[in-house]
Amino acid sequence: MRRLAGAKALAACLAAGGAGAAVWAAPPASDKGAAHPPPGPEHSPHLRRVGSGEAVPPADNPGVRVFPGLLSDRDAAELLRELQPLKARHGANLISPAAAAMYRFQQSYLGPAAPPVNMLRITGRPEMQGQLPPAWGYGDAFDRSKLPPALAALAARIEALPGLRLGPLRDVTINCRHHHFYRLDPHLDPALDGENVFIVSVDSGTVLTLCPLRWLKLQRAWEAVRGALTLEDERELVRRQAEGSWTGRDVDVRADARGGVLLSGDARWNWTHGTRLGVQLPGRPGLHDWFGRRDDVVPRGAERHSVVFAFAAGEPDGAAAGAGRGGGGGGGGGGGRGGAVLSRP
Description:
Helix content: 25-40%
Number of helices: 8
Order of helices and strands: HHEEHHEHEEEEHHEEHEEEEE
Family: Belongs to the alkB family.
Keywords: Signal
Distance between the termini: 35 Å
InterPro entries: AlkB-like_sf
CATH superfamily: Alpha-ketoglutarate-dependent dioxygenase AlkB-like
């Protein structure tokens, strides 16, 4: 009874402060703080508002840039070959047994179609006890001379993209998934990674979903109230999120295979990013993505390898864009802005 009374009180507070909360939670859309020129119209076709499916115009772009065709098929195959021994030696499963059990329960509404919960990560960032980090390190101690050839070449290709103002490289993280299990809960990457997060889809593309951070917090508060009042099954909540996203203000980003996505400015610090559990596609096994609208389904590959390059902030005039590209990285990390909302699965 006490829990129910508290939930009703919270619901009343949320309802009474609805207008003010909406203003407080209004999604920011600025690349202010990043050194790059503002995102141009060429990125709009790759960004859609969830629900309406409308393209996001440059004025509302929070700092997302999409670079299709960053890798050739040959480049991708070479990179995948290079990743295999790294996975065997340095790959770590960061999903705890308790979290894995929770995910299995939450997706059990799918029945036999529910994929095995899995992930493998290679990173220099200290994330778990017993982790064997790769030689290139992390943050101020990052040493790009320790990167294997294909990863080093890809980092250099990103730095050479026109119009970007990237500071020194601070982290390289490889994420691997299989059996169409791409679930990635909304989160902000650690502040020490730096200002710029560049995600490369090597073999399979996906849809990356951005949630305005404050709006997501309001949504979670409301879901907690509703859950307390209705005793809603967690599986129903996860199903709604898979089929309808996390908030009504989300933005979907099409991250196709062989391409890259850069998050900076508000997209880096004030919007979380994640990947929905996925939906079933008639006639195809596994789970798949949808882009902007539920009826625009994007097939997933059974396996996905992505590489995340984290760069410090560059200088507006590009003077520091080449700094730190020859040897070890360092300096200019993310400062105190941001921080993880959720541990990354």
